[in-house]
Write the structure tokens for this entry.
Amino acid sequence: MSKVSIIIPTYNRLSRLKHVLAALESQTVPPTELEVVVVSDGATDGTNEFLSSLQTPLKLKSITQTNGGPASARNNAIANASGELLLFVDDDVVAAPQLVAEHLRIHEQCAEDMVVLGPMLTPQDFPLSPWVNWEQEKLLEQYNSMQEGDWAPSARQFYTGNSSVPRLHVLAAGCFDERFRRAEDVELAYRLSERGLKFAFNPNAIGHHYAERSLQSWMATPYAYGRNDVIFSLAEGRHWLAAVTKREFQGRNALVRWLVNVSVGRRLPKGIAIGALRIVASVGNAIGMKRVTSAAYSGIFNLRYYEGVADELGGRKQFLERYFSSNGEQTRDQDNTAVG
């Protein structure tokens, strides 16, 4: 039995997966001590053939399945893992040599069971699209806040690109919920937290995130997060989460709150707002105005997130009642003249 099982779901990222596995071969922990479980989630780019013929010092288990999403792939890997500790690594996160050792160090030092979070840093040798670069900047802000003690790490920072947790707790919690293809990691983390596990951030467990995502894919992500946050908070009874997301909204930039108010649940105003922000982001990026570019992508992300929230709540009216009516702000709702 291995001490640690590294769980990697993969889908059509063969060139990147090769770098991920090569980095695991170069860990300070001997590769012969590492069980690596890779699940090809319906890949069609030669991943299956590569895994079946790969010669590696790692204790590699390669599994193929029809495409079922990351939750399904991780559950399949967990079912085939033997390690006491599960270390989740994404197929675009290249581990620094000490990543595995740093995860193990925190678990071995702690008197109680922990969930350990490692950073996914921006690689210096890989050009990111501007929207992915924005996302990486926001992650870095979270890492800095946790490292400086501004706030404690929690289930909401449990990203399976670089995190670890004792296997017995994942099994006891019921593993990943395969209904969700986004935020399925955070949803599991809520259940782990409810079981009493604590969360620790280790800035030395470094992974480098070689993220590639189209703008359309990037824009779909916050929408799914918004819908899922409503499901997690209301359908699953975590009413504290609804209060947290409302406080977060109230803390957003005034212009963002105004844009959300005007456009949420309205097809034409929403389209105009996002279209205008995309132009601003593109122009800002072209002329090197990083703050303008970042602000525009923040606006797009927020508009998409709160559109997801509104749709899951049932529409514009329900959203305004939840996010505006009780905090003294004028809603400016004009349903009689709304377009779309």
